[in-house]
Write a structure and sequence with these properties.
7-stranded mixed β-sheet, 341 residues, 15 strands, 6-stranded mixed β-sheet, alpha+beta, globular
Length: 341
């Protein structure tokens, strides 16, 4: 485990995998005709549909390190991640397209990656009622005989029945209760914690339980559609602490968190267990949600409360100012591009 959790969090949110992409997207027109109402930086883009109350939600995802460690799980996860991101803004996922990027398929290991990823993708599409309607394949992606990581990029689209009833990731009000939907397991294999902070590539990626994905996601989507939740973020790369940091940075608002599970603290913070969402709501609504989740058999945990200008976990085990978090998150990409030769 890393010794300095504060440095670990700053290194992740201010590193190449999780840093802000603002330097890229602010250079093109992402507000075509003023119709992009869910802007870059959230879980999914949201674009209004003219002449209706509806909007489309769009997300593109893949985690190549999962696909390399276990192609079947990686294929499942790529599909499930787009489904989860669309769900997290309140959309009902409809269909996906794909761009299957691999090395030389004449090599048995590469063909094995290709077949495994397709198998996992198919399982996820069937379980989530989320069909593939188009796609393309790009093979022989190699440099000096070494293939790229298996990268079956998935583009998902969904629909919001009411564009006004949508969720965004930013904390919005002081004193809101923060809830975790879904159970956290000790799943650090193929995680960003392992790859970026420990410089290791060992272990299996997190398991994708497609039944849990659908159950937890349908529950969260209903909360958004019912107007109970307007603050939501799915958990993926970087785990719980990365999700909390995203929400805090986006809302320029801190939070006080207490973790009481049985896992080691670094596992609670950085595990990339799937089928999880963070939501925030006022205390009364949060209590209603907690009861609804319990009645539905869905794991729900009260993590803490929004407010202040620091993100703290377990009485200071992590204690970071909003200024330090935002600076780390926003500065990596511009600095990298300024120094690129």
């Amino acid at each position: 485990a890393v010794d300095d959790l504060n440095k670990a969090v700053l290194d992740l949110v201010g590193g190449p995998h999780l840093c802000s992409r603002r330097w890229i997207w602010e250079q093109y027109d992402h507000m075509v005709m003023g119709d992009t109402i869910g802007r870059p930086g959230g879980d999914a883009a949201v674009v209004r549909v003219h002449g209706t109350d509806k909007a489309l939600a769009i997300s593109t995802d893949v985690t190549p390190r999962y696909c390399y460690a276990d192609p079947i799980e990686g294929g499942r996860q790529a599909v499930a991640e787009t489904w989860r991101n669309i769900t997290a803004v309140g959309g009902t996922p409809l269909a996906i397209t794909n761009c299957l990027n691999f090395g030389n398929p004449e090599r048995t290991d590469i063909m094995g990656q290709f077949v495994g990823c397709l198998e996992g993708m198919g399982e996820a599409c069937r379980a989530l009622d989320y069909p593939i309607v188009s796609g393309n394949v790009s093979l022989y992606n190699e440099t000096n005989g070494s293939g790229i990581m298996p990268t079956p990029a998935i583009g998902g689209v969904g629909v919001l029945k009411n564009a006004d009833a949508r969720a965004t990731i930013n904390f919005k009000a002081e004193g809101d209760t923060i809830l975790l939907i879904g159970e956290t397991k000790n799943e650090l294999g193929a995680s960003l914690y392992q790859k970026q902070l420990l410089n290791e590539d060992a272990g299996a990626p997190p398991h994708v339980d497609l039944t849990l994905e659908r159950r937890n996601g349908d529950f969260v989507r209903a909360l958004i559609e019912n107007g109970q939740v307007v603050t939501c973020h799915d958990l993926s790369d970087g785990g719980l602490i990365a999700g909390l940091a995203d929400m805090a940075i986006s809302g320029n608002m801190g939070a006080t968190i207490t973790l009481e599970d049985d896992l080691p603290l670094h596992a609670s913070l950085f595990s990339e267990t799937q089928a999880r969402y963070l939501i925030a709501a006022d205390a009364a609504t949060a209590e209603d949600i907690r009861k609804e989740a319990k009645d539905a058999g869905i794991p729900v945990t009260v993590l803490g409360m929004t407010g202040g200008k620091r993100l703290t976990v377990n009485s200071g085990a992590v204690d970071l100012s909003m200024g330090d978090l935002a600076t780390a998150h926003n500065d990596w990409m511009p600095n990298f591009m300024a120094n690129a030769s």
